[in-house]
Write a structure and sequence with these properties.
By secondary structure, the chain is an alpha/beta fold. α8 links the parallel β6 and β7. It is globular and about 65 Å long. It contains 17 helices and 14 strands. The chain has three domains: 91 residues, no CATH class; 139 residues, no CATH class; 170 residues, Rossmann fold (3-Layer(aba) Sandwich), CATH 3.40.50.2000.
Length: 430
């Protein structure tokens, strides 16, 4: 185990201890924050008590803590009792501490994208650099994960973590022996995607699911191909986004309808289909924002077909994502007809809800089920007249009703995320 040295050690991660640790870190000190209960916050979380630092005057870090917990006035708490979500506070205060560069939070990363290394992270990155093409063979991908698993095991042995979170089936399978030997009931298994390994490793996956502290799925659709187990849903949407990044729906200009595809451009076939249905159509514009393996192919195809209503804007900074989405009328979330696509919920699905944009989804998947149940947009197949469907929907679009539909779904998401937050801490005895 490596020896670590600190300038300041704060014993006790209650509200005063948190403020002391953060204040010292902001002054450049290397800080260790120690807490016996396994969750920071003290009376604000484990104690289920308010007010927040009631004996501390205003215009101090107390005000900052009140703000991140969504408490408008600490004195008001003293008069009216509890005014913050105790379970949500566990995550919020953890993020508050973790973002300070002199307080350690560590992530072990399989780096397949060099741009990832250029991002500013508030936590320590152990980067395993294996840059490979998206089109790499199955054998090459298995070899890459084997290399990555060796890298992860080495970091775990050096750091002696008490609990870990394992993302994706591939990571868990390749680390299965180590997890089951050293972290039984001490790891969270977080499944975000379908993996072809499922076909060949069901017994291993079943053992991993049965011996974890908690199993998390990003989509209820995953139940159809995973072994039966207890799990909670962890949606691809942060709680604060659900509350802070929502806008009002607006009318659609039927004379200038804008259809947006944003994010990684991975699938040539589905996006080609969209261009073929909407290319050179009057009163409609198709925009592709982002890069990916299909970017060059799509641009060449657009030039070949001479579509005059298609534009590519290329790479965009993450901070500009909302403004790009706000400029469109429909979000394209058409996915390939494969096992993964039928059962996942895309990040763009939540982005559409937050920014109040009706979505275009392919039939036959769980996204289509939700769009139909909550009336969130258009469901299409390759045989449909997509242009007519879009224009009919645009002419009858009711922004007030659509906003209510979005709110119904987001309320369900908020409820799921609250259950997830509690489950994470309870499962690890925090």
């Amino acid at each position: 185990m490596n020896t670590k040295y600190y300038d300041v050690i704060v014993a006790g991660a209650g509200p005063a201890g948190i403020c002391a640790a953060v204040a010292a870190a902001r002054q450049g000190a290397r800080v260790a924050l120690i807490e016996r209960y396994g969750v920071i916050g003290g009376n604000l979380t484990a104690g289920y008590v308010g007010p927040i630092l009631g004996s501390v005057s205003k215009n101090t870090m107390r005000d900052e803590v009140c703000a991140i917990l969504g408490v408008k006035d600490n004195d008001w708490i003293g008069e009216h009792g509890n005014a913050h979500d105790f379970e949500e506070a566990k995550l919020t205060l953890a993020e508050f501490v973790a973002k300070e560069k002199n307080i350690d939070v560590e992530v072990i990363l399989l780096n397949r994208d060099k741009r990832v290394l250029n991002e500013e992270f508030p936590y320590k990155i152990h980067s395993c650099d294996i840059i490979a093409k998206e089109t790499a063979s199955c054998v090459r991908k298995i070899y890459d994960y084997f290399r990555y698993s060796r890298f992860v095991r080495r970091i775990l042995k050096q750091s002696d973590y008490s609990q870990i979170v394992v993302f994706t089936i591939a990571n868990a399978v390749f680390l299965s022996y180590y997890l089951l030997s050293y972290y039984k009931k001490k790891y969270i298994f977080d499944i975000r995607d379908y993996s072809p390994l499922v076909k060949y490793t069901v017994p291993i996956i079943r053992r991993l699911l049965n011996n974890s502290a908690l199993n998390c799925f990003s989509s209820p659709g995953f139940r159809s191909w995973l072994p039966a187990c207890d799990y909670v849903i962890c949606h691809n949407a942060r709680r604060k986004f659900l509350d802070e990044d929502i806008v009002n729906a607006r009318d659609i200009d039927v004379e200038n309808v804008k259809v947006l595809t944003i994010g990684q451009l991975r699938n040539f076939i589905t996006n080609k289909m969209l261009m073929d249905h909407l290319g050179n159509k009057s009163r409609i514009t198709i925009q592709f924002s982002g890069m990916g393996i299909a970017y060059d192919l799509l641009k060449k195809y657009e030039v070949k077909k001479m579509y005059n209503n298609v534009k590519f804007t290329g790479y965009y900074p993450k901070k500009e994502e909302f403004s790009i989405v706000d400029g469109c009328d429909f979000m394209n979330i058409i996915l390939p007809d494969d096992t993964l696509s039928r059962y996942l919920i895309s990040n763009r699905f939540y982005l559409s809800l937050l920014r109040r944009k009706p979505m275009i989804v392919s039939s036959g998947g769980i996204q289509a089920e939700y769009v139909k149940e909550y009336d969130l947009g258009i469901i299409i197949s390759s045989e449909d007249d997509i242009y007519s469907k879009i224009m009919i929907y645009a002419r009858s679009f009711d922004p007030i009703q659509f906003q209510k539909n979005c709110d119904r779904f987001l309320e369900m998401v908020r409820s799921d995320m609250q259950i997830f937050s509690r489950s994470v801490f309870y499962s690890l005895n925090l």
